[in-house]
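A quick word before the example. In earlier lectures we treated sequence and structure as two separate objects. From today on, think of them as two lines of the same record. Here is Branched-chain amino acid aminotransferase written that way.
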Amino acid sequence: MNALFNSLLNDEAGFIVSAELVLVATIVVLGMIVGLSELALNINNELEDVGSAFSGIQQSYEVRGMQGHKGWVDCSDFYDTVDFCAGQFDVQ
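And the structure line, produced from the sequence above:
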């Protein structure tokens, strides 16, 4: 049993392959981190553009009143004001 343990301890046949795999795996993981970071940034930018587009929709409406010979009906209107944080590039 002791001889088997010593032979396994001194065996270096797969050491180079293991070191190369660790190096390649490290580079792949670092590349994935950078890629996912860029992906998250671009998704946030696109969602901010969609939110800015929705906030830029004109929301006012107006119903004109009616006038006749013996009476009139008042009109109704609504004018949209600028929302808080409704500009472009609000998401940081």
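Notice the following. The radius of gyration is 34 Å. We will return to this example when we discuss secondary structure assignment.
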